[in-house]
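Quick one:
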Amino acid sequence: MLLLDASALLAVLQGERGAEMVTMAMDDGSMSAANLSEVAAKLVQHGVPYEEAVSILKSFDLMIIPVDENVALVAGSLYAMTKSAGLSLGDRLCLATAILEKSEVLTADNAWAAIKVDGLNVRYIR
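Output:
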């Protein structure tokens, strides 16, 4: 299973460099509910009506992984390690989901390169 960070899906939606890699990986794609929320917020922020944003996001047919207590606690434990790299709560929730699901993560966020966690495999789209 491949876990998409919000930045990866946004690259597809915005036609950015690296979008092709994300599109090719989507057949086996999943996303944290927290990152889905981030992408939905960006769409709405850019004037896409809510119903259309939902339709767009559901069209990708990604498996959405809920943020549960375990994900929340692991994300919290990553704070000290990720603070200096400027990672957000959404980033930490994505990383925590990847750790717990033993999934590779696909991201456009090169700041993640500073994060070293055993068993965490991050692939950068650019």
